[in-house]
Design a protein that fits this description.
heterodimer, A: alpha+beta, 3 domains, B: alpha/beta, Amidase signature (AS) enzymes, 37% helix
């Protein structure tokens, strides 16, 4: 390609709090329309905003996770424009002094690390939600005033893949820090893409197009891909790329124009006079940071270093915060981490997927999962017995050891008994012995399999294998 | 007419002595309000007031607000009672909660009786721009003089003697100027001392809640009862103010008169009376100095106030679209609804101000107007603070003259002396106007402005001046 793709992102993150950014009404998601609303959210005359401390803490945590400078004084401004979803006629935001500035986030694309600079994060409030029907627009004020953090990157991204990796990394951070649900499909994480192309080697940026309305990370990739094609085609023809706001249309799988950007909107920002600057003490910032949940990057490091997991295993675990918590709790009680991770991303995860559950909602405790792993690890039960035992205790959380005994799911390690069975099998398959002696090792597995079959899988397979070899050698 | 024209203290004494009940008083107040000719009323609350009065049977001897009727400027919300800000755009708007100041007064068993007229949303200084038209001054020939604004109905009502006090608001001088024209004490405490929750916003960092009373002592009582932190107002004061130990005294008090401002006064009687007062204060042991002050700073006060207040008013009123509440006018689109609601709801004078405000904020203009005005505000505050660093208060006539007649514009080139009191809004200083002299039977007030959070000092100095002027419990019903 002869063009360099320049991408910057603006990500809006709805952060988790009990109440709204500037009012005391509940910020619970999914409540019936217009039930989480008070006079402040409706911007009734005479009402005043008060700052939500938890929302500030959430923003501090994110700023810290993104390696940013944290402003020790909170300043708010009014961004002024009329729209039917904006009750006050202005939005309270942080224009002059964002809470976080000059940060970065490292992303990995094809195992290559790239550092993406982040210009700022600032706190603001959400607008009301509009539902446009045929001849009427309904307004749900539940969303009006929910706390948002807006993150603005520098134009450091160069492809759809990088943009997707960045959004995924941000999503991972906010969910692991438990400061947001990070769900694009529910709108708790929203991403606008600014994209322009320029001939490789050119210094001047091309005209910028803003793409909105992507409700999944993969759609971000698709939208960027389509937009690169559209802009390249225009440039190839020698045509001009218009500065526009476009919208990704999921059914067309393409971007469509929303409006031309003739000139930047004049938002006439002024300081928010109803909130004086608030000094954040060093202690408050420090305490907030100390109390932060473990960042995904730190978790990764720990999984590699302490548990010796491989990249594949770590990536699977990190996709699900609850699964990592489950793993961490179970790991505290086992010594064979390899066996545990195989179980967690194998048997355990497939059960969760099949049942549509998550690691938090499952009855079986991580401690009992650890016991189950230890029973396999010390040879008390076999893998297949473990799988059977699992189906019995997953919903009841019964003690694995007790339940295994009750179900008679215990491996037989009685050498005399095993030897009897082995000799029985050898006698029934004398021709196979000749094959083995002739060097066909695979026949060995067949014989052990016969032993397992006769004992209904209760025999320790490693032990059976060892004894079988001895007996054949004697013949 | 046994109870009209009495102060809070006098009414309280009657209650304690069992010589009157709140219901007796309320009934008389209502009867008087019904005959009012000065156009002071917005919505009345007579039935609620009667019910509240009837429920008060056991007098609280240590609560001077018990059973005291009062009036409320109609830009302070009253639960269940229409509150319009004297603007058609909020006709029919019934708030869901009381303004915090009303909540506190009602909790102290004072009784709100009616909402009063104002210049539309407080934007005006003459009491002529509300949707009910001009509010008149009870002083002078009937219905000939303005009472000033924007707290016009509250000022006129207290000056008429209907009630002992009224709640007002002050963004430029909206309590202290009408107090001067109506012979009242008008007090605007330090910004943040009284919660602004429930006050219709004009310019948040200039807006104050305050009171009209007929004595300084009663302004003090109301201040003590209503000030303090309110979790609903993030700018409300968290500290406890220092009260002066012992009796108020003028001994050692330092009073500054801004010389170039006083030099602008032309009313001979006012000048003479003022100079006499200065001598009396000095005799009482106060230091009174005529101090220099930068004339450019004085000249900057009104333009700075006007630019900032119009600019911020254009944003403070952006919630009035008719969409979530208010006097909605329909249209085909939301743009049309907003345009129709605002187009028909605001008076042309307000639109004029809002347009000027938008103009001052536009990208190509803001450096020249809004940003420069913000800088000028800081310079003005610094200049005032510099004087107050070595003085307890700045003292000046609250207005260059008595109340003008209706429709007569103020004297040409009198912008500075007519509008200087906004300095106390710029800095959030406690500022109080009290009756000072009578010119042809028409009152003129004097203004004291003190240091931020030094409210009690200002009140105490005012108390001593009141003792000198003896203009206590002045009202239009008195034979002057």
């Amino acid at each position: 390609m002869k063009y360099e793709v320049i991408i910057g992102l603006e990500i809006h993150i709805e952060t988790k709090t009990k109440t709204k950014m500037f009012s005391s009404s509940s910020s619970l998601f999914d409540a019936p329309a217009n039930t989480n609303v008070n006079v402040v959210d409706m911007a009734f005359p005479g009402t005043l905003p008060t700052v939500n401390k938890k929302a500030v803490k959430n923003a501090i945590m994110l700023a810290h996770a993104l390696n940013m400078n944290i402003d020790e004084e909170l300043h708010f401004d009014r961004k002024n424009y009329f729209y039917s979803d904006l009750p006050k006629g202005y939005q309270i935001t942080q224009q002059r002094r964002p809470i976080g500035s000059d940060g970065y986030l490292d992303i990995f694309v094809n195992d290559t690390k790239k550092r993406i600079r982040i210009e700022r994060i600032h706190m603001e409030e959400d607008t009301a939600k509009q539902i446009h029907l045929a001849d009427i627009t309904l307004i749900d004020y539940n969303r009006a005033g929910l706390p948002l953090v807006e993150l603005v990157t520098e134009p450091d991204l160069r492809s759809g893949e990088e943009a997707m990796a960045f959004v995924e990394a941000v999503r991972e951070i906010v969910t692991f820090l438990e400061i947001s649900d990070g769900k694009m499909e529910e709108g708790s994480l929203r991403c606008d893409v600014n994209i322009s192309l320029r001939p490789i080697g050119a210094l001047k940026f091309g005209n910028k197009v803003e793409i909105k309305n992507m409700n999944s990370i993969s759609n971000i990739g698709k939208a960027i891909e389509m937009e690169i094609m559209r802009q390249s085609a225009l440039l190839d023809k020698g045509a001009k790329v218009e500065s526009q706001t476009r919208r990704y249309d999921d059914s067309l799988k393409d971007t469509v124009v929303m409006r031309q950007k003739d000139e930047a909107v004049d938002y006439r920002y002024i300081p928010e006079g109803n909130i004086l600057p608030i000094a954040l003490s060093k202690d408050f910032i420090k305490e907030t940071i100390v109390a932060m949940k473990e960042l995904p990057s730190a978790k990764r490091e720990r999984y590699f270093a302490k548990f010796k997991l491989n990249a594949h295993e770590v990536n699977i675990l990190l996709q699900d915060k609850e699964l990592t918590h489950y793993f961490d709790e179970a790991a505290a009680n086992v010594s064979n981490y390899k066996m545990l991770i195989n179980w967690i991303i194998g048997e355990f995860s497939s059960y969760l997927n099949k049942e549509g559950k998550n690691a938090k909602s499952v009855s079986l405790s991580p401690q009992n999962t650890a016991k189950l792993i230890n029973l396999i690890d010390n040879g008390t039960i076999s893998n297949s017995q473990a799988r059977e035992l699992f189906t019995h205790i997953i919903d009841t959380n019964e003690d694995p050891e007790t339940k295994a005994k009750a179900l008679n799911l215990v491996q037989v390690s009685d050498t005399d008994f095993i030897l009897d069975v082995i000799n029985e099998v050898i006698n029934e398959n004398l021709s196979v012995i000749d094959d083995i002696k002739a060097g066909k090792d695979r026949a060995m597995g067949f014989l052990v399999g016969q032993v397992m079959k006769k004992t209904k899988g209760k025999v320790n397979p490693a032990l059976a294998s060892k004894l079988m070899k001895q007996e054949i050698d004697k013949r | 007419m046994k109870y009209l024209g009495l102060t809070m203290t006098e009414l309280h004494e009657l209650y304690v002595a069992g010589k009157a009940t709140p219901l007796d008083v309320i009934n008389e107040v209502i009867a008087a309000l019904e005959k009012d000719q000065n156009n002071i009323l917005e919505k009345t609350m007579y039935e609620k007031a009667r019910a509240a009065a009837a429920s008060l049977t056991k007098v609280e001897e240590d609560n001077v607000l018990w059973g005291i009727p009062f009036l409320v400027k109609d830009n302070l919300t009253t639960k269940g009672v229409e509150t319009t800000g004297s603007s058609n755009i909020l006709n029919g708007f019934v708030p869901l909660c009381n303004a915090e100041v009303i909540e506190k007064l009602v909790a102290a068993k004072a009784i709100p009786v009616a909402k009063t007229t104002l210049d539309e949303f407080g934007m005006g200084g003459r009491g002529e721009t509300g949707h009910k038209g001009t509010t008149y001054n009870p002083y002078g020939k009937e219905r000939t003089r303005i009472v000033g604004g924007s707290s016009s109905g509250s000022a006129s009502g207290v000056a008429s003697g209907y009630v002992p006090f009224a709640v007002g608001s002050d963004t430029g001088d909206s309590i202290r100027k009408p107090a001067s024209f109506a012979g009242l004490v008008g007090f605007k405490p330090t910004w943040g001392a009284i919660s602004r929750f429930g006050l219709y916003a004009f310019m948040p960092t200039l807006d104050h809640v305050g009171f009209f009373t007929r004595s300084v002592g009663e302004a003090r009582v109301l201040f003590e009862k209503t000030s303090g932190y309110d979790k609903k107002d993030a700018t409300s004061m968290a500290r406890t103010l220092q009260k002066e130990a012992g009796m108020a005294t003028l001994k050692g008090k330092r009073i500054a008169v801004l010389e170039p401002l006083f030099a602008l006064m032309k009313n001979k009687l006012l000048i003479n009376e003022f100079n006499t007062l200065v001598e009396q204060l000095r005799q009482e042991g106060a230091v009174v100095d005529f101090v220099p002050f930068d004339k450019d700073i004085l000249a900057a006060i009104f333009p700075t106030y006007f630019i900032l207040s119009c600019a911020e008013a254009s944003i403070s009123t952006a919630n009035l679209t008719g969409i979530g509440f208010g006097n909605k006018k329909d249209g085909e689109s939301y743009e049309e609804i907003v345009a129709n609601t605002r187009g028909q709801g605001f008076s042309s004078r307000i639109k004029h101000r809002l347009m000027l405000g938008q103009y001052a904020l536009k990208k190509e203009n803001r450096q020249k107007y809004y940003d420069r005005a913000q800088k000028a505000r800081r310079l003005i505050v610094e200049a005032v603070d510099q004087v107050l660093a070595s003085y307890d208060v700045i003292m000046l006539p609250a207005a260059p003259n008595h109340a003008p007649t209706v429709n007569k514009p103020s004297e040409p080139n009198s912008e500075i002396e007519n509008n200087y009191m906004a300095i106390a809004n710029f800095g959030g200083n406690p500022s109080l106007t009290l009756p000072f002299c009578l010119d042809e039977g028409l009152p003129i007030g004097i203004n004291l402005t003190g240091k931020q959070f030094d409210d009690f000092n200002v009140l105490n100095i005012a108390l001593k001046i009141e003792e000198i002027t003896k203009l206590y419990n002045l009202h239009a019903g008195l034979k002057l």
